[in-house]
Amino acid sequence: MGTGDVSLTMDDRRTVVRFAVDCAQRILPTFEAVAPQDPRPRDALAAARAFADGADRSNLLRTAAFASHRASKDVTTEAARLAALACGDAAAAAYLHAIAKATQVGHILRAAACAARVAELTTGDVGDAVHALAERAAPPLPEILGRYPVAPRGSTRVSELMCLLDSAIRDRR
Questions:
Q1: Are 68 and 43 in contact (CB under 8 A)?
Q2: Dihedral, CA of residue 109, residue 115, residue 118 and residue 122, to nearest 10
Q3: What pLDDT does residue 99 have?
């Protein structure tokens, strides 16, 4: 490993993808309620789930992630857009890099942050959602997250929620 690298195995990546799939799966119905004929987010989750279950990391993950992200542009509600982004992020999480940069934390937590934002849009409260999502971050996910710098502060609500999730998960270690 070079300077700035972290230890990261394929099993670690599968753990991250499994968590992202779990988070995105919960909000997929939000997308499908708005665009029931669009399979792209569901397809991204299927590709991510297959990887988490042992399939090779392949171009299918990248193309499914991009397709789901494009699907987010075809819906009009923020919640549906975030659901499609979360599904794409679950597939993209397989490409978490072993580089100790805070930007890599997005691969670990962006799907969860999207799920937290959908909960906030639905209920008006985000505290319970952040707590519940942090609780779902079963070992070894907190330890994997701890290998990286803290999530970068951003200007969007999703990036703010990613920081809250990052802190909540790290506090559980």
A1: yes
A2: -130
A3: 94
